[in-house]
Amino acid sequence: MEITIEKTTSPKTKPDQNALGFGKYFTDHMFIMDYEKNIGWHNAKIIPYQPIPLDPATAVFHYGQAIFEGLKAYRTDDNRILLFRPSKNMERINITNQRMCMPDVDVDFCVNAIKEIVRIDQDWIPSAPGTALYIRPFIIATDPYLGVRASQTYKFMIILSPVGAYYPQGMNPVNIYVEPDYVRAVRGGTGDAKTCGNYAASLKAQERAAEKGYVQVLWLDGVEKKYIEEVGSMNVFFKINGEIITPALGGSILPGITRASVIHLLKAWGLTVTERKISMDELYQAYQSGILEEAFGTGTAAVISPIGELSWNGENIELGKEVGELAKKVYDTITGIQTGKVEDAFGWIVEVE
Ligand SMILES: *Cc1c(COP(=O)(O)O)cnc(C)c1O
């Protein structure tokens, strides 16, 4: 399939690189393609960034058949453009597609579409340390029909947003509220799919944690509210007595690409990484016995987010204001690989030429 390209005749003014924030500005172009049941994906094009007219009856507005991905393009010091494991995102979009009864996309075609649009809008990739071009591929159900069923038509789009450094003042540990009531996902639900409804369902707990002065929520399992699942929209790792533990993917946890990369890296360094169930009780006991050494979240946005404090049922787990040695080393290595400063020993980098 060819991608038709229509370039904008009125490029926008680019935002101040030092005040980008996250997801506020969008580039000059967007990728869009359509799906129809008997045709498959077709009509792939890159066009000027613009609103899309949709019938009020469009399925996505009513029953939430919508999914997304998130990755970044990084500019190196010598002005090359790098993507980090983009085919992993497109493989995951298909896992999500399957769960949501949505049509598969072609992984290689989509990685090429990402490269193509990033190339066209490459002047939008910021160069200040820590900044990047955030890439948001997403798919929505577009049948104008109110019956509850899987849509027969879809739109796949890719939009791009220059984003600021996650840690403009340097990496600092955040305080987390262990959510006692609300759950993010249940066994058999959609927790391991990157589907929009998971986020809608998480807002209430996030707001409540924010009111109490916490930056993120730690989610417990939806059945016993005992086992640790994720932190906000990040996977989570603990270092206990030299061993690194992360909750095993059991269907309700999102299989993060940063998570997989961190596990790979730690094992390559000869460290012991265990994917298993870990309860808050166990974590608290480890803390009390003085063997809980570090805790950090992992995800595309922050890469590594060290945890400074966990508030759980009125108890506090204090990990301190210093960034842990391991969190720092993993962060420096992955961001180094992403920006071309550290050798890509695992073949994770795809260059946009
Ligand atoms: C996207 C996401 C993550 C992190 O995944 P990455 O591929 O590492 O960015 C973790 N948890 C949830 C719920 C997510 O949606």
From TrEMBL:
BP term (GO), one: isoleucine biosynthetic process
Essential cofactor(s): pyridoxal 5'-phosphate
Protein keywords: Amino-acid biosynthesis, Aminotransferase, Branched-chain amino acid biosynthesis, Pyridoxal phosphate, Transferase
UniProt KW DNA repair keyword: no
Domain of life per record: Bacteria
InterPro entries registered for this protein in UniProt: Aminotrans_IV, Aminotrans_IV_CS, Aminotransferase-like, B_amino_transII, BCAT-like_C, BCAT-like_N, BCAT_family
Transferase in keyword set: yes
Pfam family, any one: Aminotran_4
GO molecular function: L-isoleucine-2-oxoglutarate transaminase activity; L-leucine-2-oxoglutarate transaminase activity; L-valine-2-oxoglutarate transaminase activity
Reaction catalyzed: L-isoleucine + 2-oxoglutarate = (S)-3-methyl-2-oxopentanoate + L-glutamate; L-leucine + 2-oxoglutarate = 4-methyl-2-oxopentanoate + L-glutamate; L-valine + 2-oxoglutarate = 3-methyl-2-oxobutanoate + L-glutamate
Enzyme Commission number(s) from the entry: 2.6.1.42
N6-(pyridoxal phosphate)lysine found at: K194
Biological pathway: Amino-acid biosynthesis; L-isoleucine biosynthesis; L-isoleucine from 2-oxobutanoate: step 4/4; Amino-acid biosynthesis; L-leucine biosynthesis; L-leucine from 3-methyl-2-oxobutanoate: step 4/4; Amino-acid biosynthesis; L-valine biosynthesis; L-valine from pyruvate: step 4/4
Family: Belongs to the class-IV pyridoxal-phosphate-dependent aminotransferase family.
Protein name, UniProt field: Branched-chain-amino-acid aminotransferase
Native organism: Desulfuribacillus stibiiarsenatis
